[in-house]
């Protein structure tokens, strides 16, 4: 093949290699997309019992954990700050696979940003998809005391982290997060990365406020790996929430709103608040806790709902739950925070002030009765979030930095 026509060889990197969180799902979908388009692709991750099999898994560094014995914890801390074992494994893979692009996802703590520096030093281009705010905030979530925090733009984290204990409300975890932020400074990350892919305009704006170079910031929404079949069931009068049951997701605000309404709420998911919320609200006849559903169950739930709800109270980036709902033709009621409003317009949903249960109840009521064109919602979403559109934009980013 003509060298100018050959597709770049890509090394995809994430700390885990199985369907765990959004970053892991993205990594697997990205790998499949690139292979299907004709790229040579290798994967680098930490060894883990649940990992999917990979051709290059012999290069994976050993598992570390922040729980367990003191020795295990110390190994994990060394890994967080850049350890020789990861550097050795990664360098060996770079030398043997010889990628033109290293595409990073979630690498902090278990692999570390040292990977970007190693690739950069070897003249390999580095692309980094940002799934959270770790490059801006030591605690990654931009939450402090359960509330959104904007103090991290200054990159002076000491007072913020140590006084508020914003990393898991733990003094030790917060100190480690602060030390990690000192080790991997923004100037170094900016120097060693050629392109930061921001799944939302909100993320790109926050990165700009954090003094990352604007010319390296690319806004590119997430994608669905395959076009879903049109829903076949009848639409009900219920509304639904699909996701993690945790404080920052605003589920308690949603349940307060649900007590003001007669429409049925179906909640799919688990998390740290599951037991508490189920015990408190399970007796309400219009509230149903479904637990964790598989992908088919989620598709059916979304496809037959009057609307779905994302009541988040933290800076969501580009939530896949909204994309999946819209691709099923189901309108969304979403909080006006982070990247959520970028996905919702007058034709596919409604927004409300985060944390306001009365405003949320009113929006849900309007959405359940709204005159929605479900097929148009589905067509518009598929046109925007299909894998072909994503790949074309991604390839143009790759080519622009090579």
Automatic annotation (TrEMBL):
Which residue range or ranges hold the Glycosyl transferase family domain?
235-378
Superkingdom to which the source organism belongs: Bacteria
Pfam assignment, any one: Glyco_transf_4
Provide any one GO MF term from the record.
Answer: glycosyltransferase activity
Q: Enumerate the spans annotated as Glycosyltransferase subfamily 4-like N-terminal domain.
A: 25-224
Q: Which InterPro entries match?
A: Glyco_trans_1, Glyco_trans_4-like_N, Glycosyltransferase_grp1
Return the protein name: Uncharacterized protein
| Organism annotation | Muribaculum intestinale
């Amino acid at each position: 093949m003509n060298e100018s026509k050959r597709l770049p060889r890509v090394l995809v990197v994430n700390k885990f290699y199985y369907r765990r969180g959004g970053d892991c799902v993205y990594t697997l979908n990205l790998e499949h997309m690139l292979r299907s388009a004709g790229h040579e692709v290798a994967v680098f991750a930490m060894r883990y019992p649940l990992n999917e099999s990979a051709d290059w898994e012999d290069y994976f560094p050993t598992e570390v954990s922040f729980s367990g014995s003191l020795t295990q914890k110390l190994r994990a801390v060394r890994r967080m700050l850049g350890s020789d074992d990861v550097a050795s494994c990664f360098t060996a893979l770079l030398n043997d696979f010889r990628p033109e692009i290293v595409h990073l996802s979630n690498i902090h703590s278990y692999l570390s940003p040292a990977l970007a520096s190693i690739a950069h030093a070897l003249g390999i281009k580095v692309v980094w998809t940002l799934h959270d705010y770790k490059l801006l905030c030591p605690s990654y979530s931009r939450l402090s005391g359960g509330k959104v925090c904007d103090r991290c733009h200054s990159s002076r984290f000491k007072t913020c982290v140590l006084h508020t204990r914003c990393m898991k409300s733990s003094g030790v975890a917060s100190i480690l997060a602060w030390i990690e932020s000192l080790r991997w400074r923004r100037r170094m990350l900016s120097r060693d990365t050629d392109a930061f892919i921001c799944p939302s305009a909100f993320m790109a704006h926050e990165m700009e406020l954090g003094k990352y170079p604007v010319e390296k910031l690319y806004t590119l929404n997430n994608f669905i790996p395959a076009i879903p079949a049109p829903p076949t069931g009848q639409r009900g009068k219920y509304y639904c929430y699909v996701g993690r049951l945790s404080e920052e997701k605003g589920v308690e605000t949603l349940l307060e709103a649900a007590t003001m309404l007669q429409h049925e709420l179906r909640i799919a998911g688990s998390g740290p608040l599951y037991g508490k919320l189920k015990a408190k609200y399970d007796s309400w006849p219009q509230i149903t806790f479904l637990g964790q559903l598989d992908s088919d169950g989620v598709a059916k739930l979304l496809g037959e709902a009057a609307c779905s709800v994302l009541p988040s109270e933290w800076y969501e980036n580009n939530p896949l739950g909204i994309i999946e709902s819209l691709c099923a033709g189901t309108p969304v009621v979403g909080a006006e925070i982070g990247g959520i409003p970028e996905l919702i317009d007058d034709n596919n949903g409604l927004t409300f002030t985060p944390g306001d249960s009365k405003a949320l109840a009113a929006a849900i009521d309007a959405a359940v009765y709204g005159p929605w064109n479900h097929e148009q919602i589905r067509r518009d979403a598929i046109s925007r979030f299909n894998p072909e559109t994503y790949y074309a934009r991604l390839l143009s980013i790759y080519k622009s930095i090579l």
